[in-house]
Amino acid sequence: MYVNRRFYDKYVSTRDVELLHEYSLRVLKEVGVSFDCEEALEIFKKHGATVEGSIVKIDEDLLNQALETAPKTFTVTTSAGETKIGERFKPKTVGCYGPPKFLFEDDEYRVAMKDDMVKFLKLMDTSDVTDFVNNSAYDTADLDKTKDDFYMPQVAMCLKYSQKPTYGNVANSLNVRGKSLKEAAKGIAQLYKEFYDIWDRPVLLTNACALSPLGYSYEVLDNIMGLVEEGQPVTIITCSMTNLTAPAALLGSVIQNNATILAGIVLTQLINPGCPVIYGTVSSPTDMRTVSLAIGAPEAQLIQMASLALGRYYQLPVRTGIAGTDSLKPDYQAGVESFMILMTTYLGKSDFVLNHAGILQSYALGSYEKFVLDEEVNRILMRLNRGMDISDMRAEKVFAEIKKAGPLGNYLSGRTPKEYRQEHWLTKLFNRQAGNPQPIFDEIGDLRERASKEVEERVAGYTLPDLTKTQKDILNRYLPEDEKF
Question: Which of 6, 148, 212, 245 could pair with 178 as two cysteines, CB 3.0-4.6 Å apart?
Answer without folding.
Answer: 148
